[in-house]
Amino acid sequence: MLFLSVQTADNKIKDPYHLRDLKTFVTDIFRKPPVLFPLVAVFHLVWLTMSVMNLVQVTAPATIIAALCMVGYTVFWVATADLRKWGAIGYILMTTANIVAWYMDYSHAVRHPYESPLFIIDLLFCFFIMFYFKRFR
Protein backbone atom coordinates (compact mmCIF):
# COMPACT_ATOMS: atom_id res chain seq x y z
CA MET A 1 0.00 0.00 0.00
CA LEU A 2 2.10 2.80 -1.30
CA PHE A 3 -0.28 5.60 -0.28
CA LEU A 4 0.10 4.59 3.38
CA SER A 5 3.88 4.65 3.15
CA VAL A 6 6.36 7.41 3.83
CA GLN A 7 9.60 7.82 1.96
CA THR A 8 12.53 8.60 4.23
CA ALA A 9 15.63 10.67 3.43
CA ASP A 10 17.61 7.58 2.39
CA ASN A 11 14.88 6.65 -0.18
CA LYS A 12 13.57 3.73 1.85
CA ILE A 13 9.82 3.34 2.09
CA LYS A 14 8.64 3.20 5.67
CA ASP A 15 5.15 2.17 6.77
CA PRO A 16 3.81 4.75 9.28
CA TYR A 17 1.66 2.08 10.94
CA HIS A 18 4.59 -0.20 11.66
CA LEU A 19 4.54 -1.27 15.30
CA ARG A 20 7.63 -1.00 17.43
CA ASP A 21 9.01 -4.02 19.17
CA LEU A 22 8.56 -4.28 22.94
CA LYS A 23 12.15 -3.29 23.78
CA THR A 24 11.92 -0.08 21.74
CA PHE A 25 8.50 0.69 23.24
CA VAL A 26 9.76 0.34 26.82
CA THR A 27 12.91 2.32 26.00
CA ASP A 28 10.81 5.12 24.48
CA ILE A 29 8.56 5.24 27.54
CA PHE A 30 11.53 5.66 29.87
CA ARG A 31 13.59 8.06 27.71
CA LYS A 32 11.17 10.43 25.93
CA PRO A 33 8.90 11.87 28.65
CA PRO A 34 9.79 13.64 31.88
CA VAL A 35 10.82 11.28 34.70
CA LEU A 36 7.42 11.56 36.40
CA PHE A 37 5.53 9.85 33.56
CA PRO A 38 7.35 6.48 33.61
CA LEU A 39 7.24 6.41 37.41
CA VAL A 40 3.48 6.93 37.36
CA ALA A 41 3.19 4.23 34.68
CA VAL A 42 4.99 1.77 36.97
CA PHE A 43 2.72 2.88 39.83
CA HIS A 44 -0.35 2.20 37.66
CA LEU A 45 0.97 -1.22 36.66
CA VAL A 46 1.55 -2.15 40.31
CA TRP A 47 -1.92 -0.89 41.27
CA LEU A 48 -3.44 -2.86 38.37
CA THR A 49 -1.66 -6.00 39.57
CA MET A 50 -3.07 -5.46 43.06
CA SER A 51 -6.57 -4.92 41.62
CA VAL A 52 -6.37 -8.13 39.60
CA MET A 53 -5.13 -10.06 42.65
CA ASN A 54 -8.05 -8.64 44.63
CA LEU A 55 -10.40 -9.63 41.81
CA VAL A 56 -9.15 -13.22 41.95
CA GLN A 57 -9.83 -13.37 45.68
CA VAL A 58 -13.21 -11.57 45.68
CA THR A 59 -15.32 -11.68 42.53
CA ALA A 60 -17.94 -9.12 43.57
CA PRO A 61 -19.26 -6.59 41.04
CA ALA A 62 -17.43 -3.80 42.86
CA THR A 63 -14.04 -5.46 42.41
CA ILE A 64 -14.79 -6.19 38.75
CA ILE A 65 -15.63 -2.53 38.14
CA ALA A 66 -12.54 -1.39 40.05
CA ALA A 67 -10.31 -3.73 38.04
CA LEU A 68 -11.82 -2.56 34.73
CA CYS A 69 -11.31 1.07 35.75
CA MET A 70 -7.69 0.34 36.59
CA VAL A 71 -7.20 -1.36 33.21
CA GLY A 72 -8.50 1.81 31.54
CA TYR A 73 -6.37 4.12 33.66
CA THR A 74 -3.27 1.97 33.09
CA VAL A 75 -3.71 1.74 29.32
CA PHE A 76 -4.31 5.48 29.03
CA TRP A 77 -1.35 6.34 31.26
CA VAL A 78 1.06 4.05 29.43
CA ALA A 79 -0.01 5.80 26.22
CA THR A 80 0.49 9.12 28.01
CA ALA A 81 3.99 8.02 29.05
CA ASP A 82 4.60 7.36 25.34
CA LEU A 83 3.52 11.00 24.77
CA ARG A 84 0.36 10.07 22.83
CA LYS A 85 -2.42 12.65 22.78
CA TRP A 86 -5.14 10.00 22.71
CA GLY A 87 -3.80 8.54 25.95
CA ALA A 88 -3.72 11.92 27.65
CA ILE A 89 -7.21 12.83 26.48
CA GLY A 90 -8.53 9.40 27.48
CA TYR A 91 -7.02 9.69 30.96
CA ILE A 92 -8.50 13.15 31.47
CA LEU A 93 -11.92 12.02 30.19
CA MET A 94 -11.88 8.95 32.42
CA THR A 95 -11.01 11.09 35.43
CA THR A 96 -13.75 13.55 34.49
CA ALA A 97 -16.29 10.72 34.23
CA ASN A 98 -15.16 9.53 37.65
CA ILE A 99 -15.69 13.01 39.10
CA VAL A 100 -19.14 13.26 37.51
CA ALA A 101 -20.11 9.84 38.88
CA TRP A 102 -18.89 10.92 42.31
CA TYR A 103 -20.91 14.13 42.43
CA MET A 104 -24.05 12.92 40.63
CA ASP A 105 -24.72 10.04 43.00
CA TYR A 106 -25.70 11.02 46.51
CA SER A 107 -26.04 7.50 47.88
CA HIS A 108 -22.72 6.40 49.34
CA ALA A 109 -23.72 2.72 49.13
CA VAL A 110 -24.09 2.96 45.35
CA ARG A 111 -21.19 5.37 44.86
CA HIS A 112 -18.50 3.13 46.34
CA PRO A 113 -18.24 0.54 43.51
CA TYR A 114 -17.86 3.21 40.85
CA GLU A 115 -15.23 5.37 42.48
CA SER A 116 -11.58 5.06 41.71
CA PRO A 117 -9.32 4.31 44.66
CA LEU A 118 -6.97 6.92 43.20
CA PHE A 119 -9.55 9.73 42.98
CA ILE A 120 -7.43 12.65 44.23
CA ILE A 121 -4.21 11.29 42.76
CA ASP A 122 -5.89 11.00 39.34
CA LEU A 123 -6.69 14.71 39.49
CA LEU A 124 -3.06 15.49 40.27
CA PHE A 125 -1.89 13.34 37.35
CA CYS A 126 -4.32 15.20 35.06
CA PHE A 127 -2.65 18.48 35.99
CA PHE A 128 0.73 16.98 35.04
CA ILE A 129 -0.74 15.86 31.72
CA MET A 130 -2.12 19.33 30.99
CA PHE A 131 1.20 20.93 31.89
CA TYR A 132 3.10 18.79 29.34
CA PHE A 133 0.32 18.46 26.74
CA LYS A 134 2.15 20.53 24.07
CA ARG A 135 4.90 17.90 23.89
CA PHE A 136 2.48 15.11 22.97
CA ARG A 137 1.93 13.88 19.43
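[next item in queue]
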Amino acid sequence: QFDHRSNVRGQIAKAGSPQKLQSRVKIFSFTKIWQNCYLDEEMRYQKTQAFKKHLVSASPENLSRCYMVAIPDEYERMQALSTVIASFPGCPRVSFEGSSSLCREIADALLSPSLFGGEPLVVLENAEKMAKKEITALAEVLDTPSLYGYFVTSSSAKIAFMAIMEKRGVVLDLLDEKPWDREKRLVEVAIEKAASLGKKIALDLASFLLTRIGADAALLDSEMEKLACFIGERMIIEKSDVLCISQETAVASWEIAEKIIWTPGEVISLESSLFYGMISLLRSQLEIGLKLNQLSGAGMPREEWKSYLPRYLYGKKLEEKVLQALRLKAFYFQKGIDLLFEIEVLSRTGAPSEAALLDFFRISLEYARR
Protein backbone atom coordinates (compact mmCIF):
# COMPACT_ATOMS: atom_id res chain seq x y z
CA GLN A 1 0.00 0.00 0.00
CA PHE A 2 3.05 2.27 0.11
CA ASP A 3 4.24 1.64 -3.45
CA HIS A 4 1.94 4.13 -5.19
CA ARG A 5 3.45 7.61 -5.47
CA SER A 6 0.06 9.25 -5.74
CA ASN A 7 -0.69 7.90 -2.26
CA VAL A 8 2.36 9.28 -0.48
CA ARG A 9 0.87 12.62 0.59
CA GLY A 10 -2.17 10.86 2.05
CA GLN A 11 0.03 8.46 3.98
CA ILE A 12 2.12 11.37 5.28
CA ALA A 13 -1.04 13.11 6.51
CA LYS A 14 -2.15 9.97 8.35
CA ALA A 15 1.27 9.35 9.87
CA GLY A 16 1.65 13.00 10.95
CA SER A 17 5.04 13.60 9.35
CA PRO A 18 7.33 12.17 6.65
CA GLN A 19 9.63 10.82 9.36
CA LYS A 20 6.87 8.87 11.14
CA LEU A 21 5.73 7.41 7.87
CA GLN A 22 9.29 6.47 7.03
CA SER A 23 9.58 4.63 10.36
CA ARG A 24 6.32 2.85 9.68
CA VAL A 25 7.54 1.83 6.24
CA LYS A 26 10.74 0.44 7.70
CA ILE A 27 8.72 -1.74 10.06
CA PHE A 28 7.13 -3.35 7.01
CA SER A 29 10.53 -3.66 5.30
CA PHE A 30 9.53 -1.33 2.47
CA THR A 31 12.45 1.08 2.89
CA LYS A 32 13.47 0.99 -0.76
CA ILE A 33 9.94 1.62 -1.97
CA TRP A 34 9.62 4.51 0.52
CA GLN A 35 12.85 6.15 -0.53
CA ASN A 36 11.81 6.10 -4.19
CA CYS A 37 8.42 7.64 -3.39
CA TYR A 38 9.66 10.05 -0.73
CA LEU A 39 12.35 11.71 -2.80
CA ASP A 40 10.15 12.14 -5.88
CA GLU A 41 7.11 13.63 -4.12
CA GLU A 42 6.74 17.32 -3.32
CA MET A 43 8.28 18.19 0.05
CA ARG A 44 7.82 21.71 1.40
CA TYR A 45 8.38 22.71 5.00
CA GLN A 46 7.04 25.93 6.49
CA LYS A 47 8.40 25.34 9.99
CA THR A 48 12.14 25.57 10.64
CA GLN A 49 12.04 23.04 13.47
CA ALA A 50 10.40 20.40 11.27
CA PHE A 51 12.94 21.13 8.53
CA LYS A 52 15.87 20.72 10.94
CA LYS A 53 14.42 17.46 12.25
CA HIS A 54 14.20 16.22 8.67
CA LEU A 55 17.89 16.98 8.10
CA VAL A 56 18.88 15.17 11.29
CA SER A 57 16.75 12.10 10.57
CA ALA A 58 17.71 11.91 6.88
CA SER A 59 21.46 12.43 7.38
CA PRO A 60 23.64 10.97 6.07
CA GLU A 61 22.17 8.20 3.89
CA ASN A 62 18.68 9.47 3.09
CA LEU A 63 19.34 13.11 2.23
CA SER A 64 17.63 14.44 -0.87
CA ARG A 65 19.53 15.39 -4.02
CA CYS A 66 18.11 18.94 -3.89
CA TYR A 67 17.50 21.42 -1.08
CA MET A 68 16.23 24.98 -1.17
CA VAL A 69 15.79 27.61 1.56
CA ALA A 70 13.45 30.45 0.56
CA ILE A 71 13.51 33.09 3.29
CA PRO A 72 13.12 36.89 2.94
CA ASP A 73 15.46 37.80 5.80
CA GLU A 74 19.10 37.54 4.71
CA TYR A 75 20.52 36.61 8.12
CA GLU A 76 18.01 33.81 8.62
CA ARG A 77 18.52 32.64 5.04
CA MET A 78 22.29 32.40 5.55
CA GLN A 79 21.82 30.46 8.79
CA ALA A 80 19.42 27.99 7.20
CA LEU A 81 21.71 27.53 4.21
CA SER A 82 24.67 26.86 6.52
CA THR A 83 22.63 24.23 8.38
CA VAL A 84 21.87 22.39 5.13
CA ILE A 85 25.49 22.58 3.94
CA ALA A 86 26.68 21.18 7.28
CA SER A 87 24.61 18.05 6.58
CA PHE A 88 27.00 17.17 3.71
CA PRO A 89 30.40 17.13 5.48
CA GLY A 90 32.08 14.69 3.09
CA CYS A 91 31.10 16.32 -0.20
CA PRO A 92 33.50 18.61 -2.10
CA ARG A 93 31.75 21.97 -2.35
CA VAL A 94 31.34 24.12 -5.47
CA SER A 95 29.80 27.56 -4.83
CA PHE A 96 27.98 29.94 -7.15
CA GLU A 97 26.44 33.40 -6.72
CA GLY A 98 23.15 34.04 -8.51
CA SER A 99 24.04 37.50 -9.82
CA SER A 100 27.11 36.24 -11.68
CA SER A 101 26.39 32.59 -12.56
CA LEU A 102 25.30 30.87 -15.75
CA CYS A 103 23.18 27.74 -15.99
CA ARG A 104 25.81 25.84 -17.99
CA GLU A 105 28.41 26.33 -15.22
CA ILE A 106 26.05 24.99 -12.56
CA ALA A 107 24.94 22.13 -14.83
CA ASP A 108 28.56 21.12 -15.48
CA ALA A 109 29.21 20.93 -11.74
CA LEU A 110 26.00 18.97 -11.09
CA LEU A 111 26.31 16.45 -13.89
CA SER A 112 30.05 15.73 -13.66
CA PRO A 113 32.13 13.81 -11.10
CA SER A 114 34.20 15.99 -8.77
CA LEU A 115 37.93 16.26 -9.46
CA PHE A 116 38.47 15.80 -5.73
CA GLY A 117 36.52 12.55 -5.58
CA GLY A 118 33.05 11.91 -4.21
CA GLU A 119 29.75 13.50 -5.19
CA PRO A 120 29.97 17.31 -5.40
CA LEU A 121 27.82 19.63 -3.31
CA VAL A 122 26.77 22.48 -5.63
CA VAL A 123 25.67 25.57 -3.69
CA LEU A 124 23.87 28.45 -5.43
CA GLU A 125 23.28 31.51 -3.24
CA ASN A 126 20.73 34.22 -4.07
CA ALA A 127 19.17 32.25 -6.93
CA GLU A 128 16.58 34.99 -7.47
CA LYS A 129 19.36 37.23 -8.84
CA MET A 130 19.97 34.97 -11.84
CA ALA A 131 18.73 36.14 -15.25
CA LYS A 132 15.26 34.85 -16.06
CA LYS A 133 16.44 32.74 -19.00
CA GLU A 134 19.16 31.18 -16.82
CA ILE A 135 16.60 30.26 -14.14
CA THR A 136 14.36 28.65 -16.77
CA ALA A 137 17.29 26.66 -18.18
CA LEU A 138 18.36 25.55 -14.69
CA ALA A 139 14.81 24.35 -13.97
CA GLU A 140 15.11 21.99 -16.95
CA VAL A 141 18.44 20.68 -15.67
CA LEU A 142 17.05 20.06 -12.19
CA ASP A 143 14.07 18.19 -13.63
CA THR A 144 16.32 15.49 -15.10
CA PRO A 145 16.91 12.28 -13.13
CA SER A 146 20.64 12.18 -13.89
CA LEU A 147 22.05 14.59 -11.28
CA TYR A 148 25.45 13.34 -10.20
CA GLY A 149 25.93 15.71 -7.28
CA TYR A 150 23.80 17.39 -4.63
CA PHE A 151 22.23 20.81 -5.24
CA VAL A 152 21.57 23.35 -2.47
CA THR A 153 20.23 26.83 -3.16
CA SER A 154 18.82 29.89 -1.39
CA SER A 155 16.42 32.61 -2.49
CA SER A 156 14.64 35.63 -1.05
CA ALA A 157 11.74 35.34 -3.51
CA LYS A 158 9.70 32.80 -5.47
CA ILE A 159 11.49 31.68 -8.63
CA ALA A 160 10.71 29.48 -11.63
CA PHE A 161 12.39 26.28 -10.44
CA MET A 162 10.86 26.33 -6.94
CA ALA A 163 8.16 23.84 -7.98
CA ILE A 164 10.86 21.58 -9.45
CA MET A 165 12.78 21.78 -6.17
CA GLU A 166 9.67 20.69 -4.26
CA LYS A 167 9.19 17.79 -6.66
CA ARG A 168 12.82 16.66 -6.79
CA GLY A 169 13.90 17.58 -3.27
CA VAL A 170 13.06 19.46 -0.08
CA VAL A 171 12.18 23.14 0.35
CA LEU A 172 12.06 25.32 3.45
CA ASP A 173 9.62 28.06 2.42
CA LEU A 174 9.10 31.02 4.77
CA LEU A 175 8.24 33.53 2.05
CA ASP A 176 4.57 33.75 3.03
CA GLU A 177 5.13 33.52 6.79
CA LYS A 178 2.71 35.77 8.68
CA PRO A 179 4.27 38.47 10.91
CA TRP A 180 2.73 36.97 14.06
CA ASP A 181 4.03 33.51 13.13
CA ARG A 182 7.50 34.93 12.58
CA GLU A 183 7.44 36.66 15.96
CA LYS A 184 6.38 33.41 17.63
CA ARG A 185 9.20 31.57 15.85
CA LEU A 186 11.78 34.19 16.86
CA VAL A 187 10.69 33.83 20.49
CA GLU A 188 11.48 30.12 20.19
CA VAL A 189 14.80 31.02 18.54
CA ALA A 190 15.67 33.23 21.54
CA ILE A 191 14.94 30.38 23.96
CA GLU A 192 17.07 27.97 21.89
CA LYS A 193 19.90 30.50 21.65
CA ALA A 194 19.88 30.94 25.43
CA ALA A 195 20.05 27.15 25.87
CA SER A 196 22.98 26.92 23.44
CA LEU A 197 24.80 29.49 25.61
CA GLY A 198 24.04 27.53 28.79
CA LYS A 199 21.36 29.99 29.94
CA LYS A 200 17.59 30.08 30.36
CA ILE A 201 15.04 32.74 29.42
CA ALA A 202 11.32 32.53 30.15
CA LEU A 203 8.85 32.48 27.25
CA ASP A 204 7.19 35.75 28.29
CA LEU A 205 10.56 37.46 28.76
CA ALA A 206 11.75 36.32 25.32
CA SER A 207 8.54 37.80 23.89
CA PHE A 208 9.17 41.05 25.80
CA LEU A 209 12.73 41.21 24.42
CA LEU A 210 11.40 40.83 20.88
CA THR A 211 8.86 43.64 21.28
CA ARG A 212 11.67 45.78 22.66
CA ILE A 213 14.23 45.30 19.87
CA GLY A 214 11.95 44.36 16.95
CA ALA A 215 11.57 41.17 14.90
CA ASP A 216 15.14 41.21 13.59
CA ALA A 217 16.87 37.80 13.71
CA ALA A 218 20.42 39.18 13.50
CA LEU A 219 19.85 41.73 16.24
CA LEU A 220 18.11 39.12 18.40
CA ASP A 221 21.10 36.80 18.07
CA SER A 222 23.43 39.62 19.07
CA GLU A 223 21.28 40.64 22.05
CA MET A 224 21.11 37.09 23.40
CA GLU A 225 24.91 36.83 23.33
CA LYS A 226 25.22 40.19 25.11
CA LEU A 227 22.72 39.11 27.77
CA ALA A 228 24.49 35.79 28.34
CA CYS A 229 27.78 37.68 28.80
CA PHE A 230 26.18 40.26 31.09
CA ILE A 231 24.71 37.80 33.61
CA GLY A 232 28.02 35.97 33.98
CA GLU A 233 27.70 32.75 35.98
CA ARG A 234 23.97 33.17 36.60
CA MET A 235 21.83 30.64 34.72
CA ILE A 236 18.59 32.59 34.30
CA ILE A 237 18.14 35.82 32.32
CA GLU A 238 15.84 38.22 34.19
CA LYS A 239 13.75 41.17 33.08
CA SER A 240 16.10 43.61 34.81
CA ASP A 241 18.92 42.28 32.61
CA VAL A 242 16.90 42.92 29.44
CA LEU A 243 16.00 46.45 30.59
CA CYS A 244 19.63 47.17 31.36
CA ILE A 245 21.25 45.73 28.22
CA SER A 246 18.72 45.76 25.38
CA GLN A 247 17.70 49.20 24.18
CA GLU A 248 14.39 49.90 22.46
CA THR A 249 15.68 50.03 18.88
CA ALA A 250 12.92 48.65 16.63
CA VAL A 251 11.42 51.96 15.50
CA ALA A 252 14.65 53.92 15.87
CA SER A 253 16.66 51.52 13.67
CA TRP A 254 14.09 51.67 10.86
CA GLU A 255 14.01 55.46 10.95
CA ILE A 256 17.82 55.68 10.98
CA ALA A 257 18.06 53.36 7.96
CA GLU A 258 15.54 55.49 6.05
CA LYS A 259 17.43 58.69 6.85
CA ILE A 260 20.80 57.25 5.81
CA ILE A 261 19.52 56.10 2.40
CA TRP A 262 16.93 58.71 1.48
CA THR A 263 18.45 61.86 3.04
CA PRO A 264 22.21 61.41 2.45
CA GLY A 265 24.49 63.97 4.02
CA GLU A 266 22.66 64.11 7.36
CA VAL A 267 25.04 63.40 10.26
CA ILE A 268 23.89 60.31 12.17
CA SER A 269 25.75 58.51 14.98
CA LEU A 270 25.59 54.72 14.81
CA GLU A 271 26.30 52.13 17.51
CA SER A 272 28.27 48.94 16.83
CA SER A 273 25.55 46.86 18.53
CA LEU A 274 23.12 47.78 15.74
CA PHE A 275 25.42 46.63 12.93
CA TYR A 276 23.85 43.37 11.72
CA GLY A 277 20.30 44.55 12.32
CA MET A 278 21.06 47.78 10.46
CA ILE A 279 22.56 45.90 7.49
CA SER A 280 19.24 44.22 6.65
CA LEU A 281 17.29 47.47 7.11
CA LEU A 282 19.68 49.44 4.89
CA ARG A 283 19.58 46.75 2.20
CA SER A 284 15.77 46.80 2.28
CA GLN A 285 15.72 50.58 1.67
CA LEU A 286 18.30 50.34 -1.13
CA GLU A 287 16.38 47.57 -2.88
CA ILE A 288 13.19 49.65 -2.73
CA GLY A 289 14.99 52.61 -4.34
CA LEU A 290 16.51 50.43 -7.06
CA LYS A 291 13.16 48.77 -7.78
CA LEU A 292 11.40 52.16 -8.09
CA ASN A 293 13.96 53.24 -10.68
CA GLN A 294 13.53 49.99 -12.60
CA LEU A 295 9.73 50.19 -12.56
CA SER A 296 9.78 53.82 -13.69
CA GLY A 297 12.21 53.01 -16.49
CA ALA A 298 10.11 50.05 -17.68
CA GLY A 299 7.06 52.27 -18.15
CA MET A 300 4.83 49.88 -16.20
CA PRO A 301 1.45 51.32 -15.10
CA ARG A 302 1.43 52.38 -11.43
CA GLU A 303 -1.46 50.07 -10.56
CA GLU A 304 0.76 47.08 -11.39
CA TRP A 305 3.59 48.18 -9.08
CA LYS A 306 2.07 46.92 -5.84
CA SER A 307 3.19 43.31 -6.38
CA TYR A 308 6.82 44.49 -6.52
CA LEU A 309 6.81 46.81 -3.49
CA PRO A 310 6.18 46.61 0.29
CA ARG A 311 2.52 46.93 1.26
CA TYR A 312 3.10 50.11 3.29
CA LEU A 313 4.33 51.96 0.17
CA TYR A 314 1.30 53.36 -1.64
CA GLY A 315 -0.53 56.60 -2.41
CA LYS A 316 1.19 59.83 -1.45
CA LYS A 317 4.11 58.07 0.26
CA LEU A 318 4.79 56.10 -2.91
CA GLU A 319 4.78 59.27 -5.03
CA GLU A 320 7.27 60.93 -2.67
CA LYS A 321 9.55 57.91 -2.74
CA VAL A 322 9.43 57.73 -6.56
CA LEU A 323 10.55 61.36 -6.84
CA GLN A 324 13.37 60.76 -4.35
CA ALA A 325 14.46 57.55 -6.08
CA LEU A 326 14.60 59.17 -9.51
CA ARG A 327 16.55 62.11 -8.13
CA LEU A 328 19.12 59.82 -6.47
CA LYS A 329 19.23 57.49 -9.54
CA ALA A 330 19.66 53.74 -9.89
CA PHE A 331 23.48 53.88 -9.70
CA TYR A 332 23.28 55.31 -6.17
CA PHE A 333 21.14 52.43 -4.89
CA GLN A 334 23.16 49.73 -6.68
CA LYS A 335 26.38 51.22 -5.31
CA GLY A 336 24.86 51.11 -1.83
CA ILE A 337 24.01 47.41 -2.18
CA ASP A 338 27.58 46.69 -3.33
CA LEU A 339 29.03 48.67 -0.41
CA LEU A 340 26.85 46.78 2.08
CA PHE A 341 28.20 43.48 0.77
CA GLU A 342 31.74 44.85 1.11
CA ILE A 343 31.41 45.97 4.73
CA GLU A 344 29.60 42.77 5.71
CA VAL A 345 32.51 40.71 4.37
CA LEU A 346 34.98 42.98 6.19
CA SER A 347 33.05 42.58 9.45
CA ARG A 348 33.54 38.81 9.29
CA THR A 349 37.29 39.05 8.76
CA GLY A 350 38.07 40.94 11.95
CA ALA A 351 38.49 44.27 10.17
CA PRO A 352 37.67 47.67 11.80
CA SER A 353 34.86 48.06 14.32
CA GLU A 354 31.26 47.77 13.15
CA ALA A 355 30.63 51.45 13.91
CA ALA A 356 33.61 52.40 11.70
CA LEU A 357 32.32 50.17 8.90
CA LEU A 358 28.89 51.83 9.04
CA ASP A 359 30.57 55.25 8.89
CA PHE A 360 32.61 54.08 5.89
CA PHE A 361 29.39 52.93 4.20
CA ARG A 362 27.62 56.24 4.85
CA ILE A 363 30.53 58.38 3.62
CA SER A 364 31.11 56.21 0.52
CA LEU A 365 27.43 56.37 -0.34
CA GLU A 366 27.42 60.13 -0.02
CA TYR A 367 30.43 60.29 -2.37
CA ALA A 368 28.61 58.06 -4.90
CA ARG A 369 25.66 60.47 -4.89
CA ARG A 370 27.90 63.36 -5.87
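[queue empty]
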